[in-house]
Amino acid sequence: MEKLKLRIFTLIFFISSVFFISNAQDVNALSCAESGGPQEQLEIYDGAVYGEIKQVKVDLKQEGFTGTKEKIRYILVEVERSWNTEVDSQLIIATNFTWGFDFKEGNKYLIYFSEVDGELSSSPCSLTIEMNDLNQATELFGEGYPPKQQVNLEHKMWFMFEQDIDLFIVGVVVFAAIFIFFMRVRKKKRKV
Questions:
Q1: What is the pLDDT of residue 52?
Q2: What is the pTM of this model?
């Protein structure tokens, strides 16, 4: 009878683990309205920056423990010039992982951004332009603003992980519970 309970418990554990760990694919749709050229884009968004991409990291965001998971690509930009708003020498801008522009470290871009809930983000519908020369951007928008202060935000990119750490924590807890369970069963068998 004891073996049957153990087998049933193990079977239930493995079946529930498969359902818990399996990742369902979310389906998303994107619709962008025609928003015009670079000058019109500058009126739509909070600002634009020209600079070099220092780092690109993907982070997994989740609302609570069981909320939907969303991958967000963060880019660390070394700003050379900005328009519409003054910014620091480095910015971290969130981009959409699914549709966002495929930024390459070391390349320079003109990036439009908006501020949402205290976080800078670049819309997948915004016009992002790869440029090798600041003069191209100043021809479009004028002189703009130099960075207002020198900052280093590289340390904020350290704690961004693409993997779901919650599952690792749950796995460790489940493993510990199983280990304790088997140790108790062994201890009881020795007493008998």
A1: 92
A2: 0.67
pLDDT of residue 29: 62
The reported pLDDT for the residue numbered 108 is 92
What is the 3-state secondary structure of 100-136? Answer: CCCCCCCCEEEEEEEEECCEEEECCCCCCEECCCHHH
The amino acid at residue 104 is: K
Rounded to whole angstroms, how far apart are CA atoms 188 and 73? Answer: 52
Tokens encoding 92: 């971290």
Which residues of the chain, if any, have pLDDT below 50?
none
Q: Is 90 helix (H, G, I), strand (E, B) or coil?
A: strand
Q: Please list, in sequence order, all residues whose beta carbon lies within 8 angstroms of the beta carbon of residue 9, skipping any fewer than 6 positions away.
A: none
Helix H or strand E segment including 175: helix 165-191
Q: Please, are residues 93 and 55 in contact by the beta-carbon 8 Å criterion? A: no
Write the CB contacts of 161 (distance below 8 Å, at least 6 apart in sequence). 59, 60
Closest CA to 101 of 77, 78, 83, 79: 77
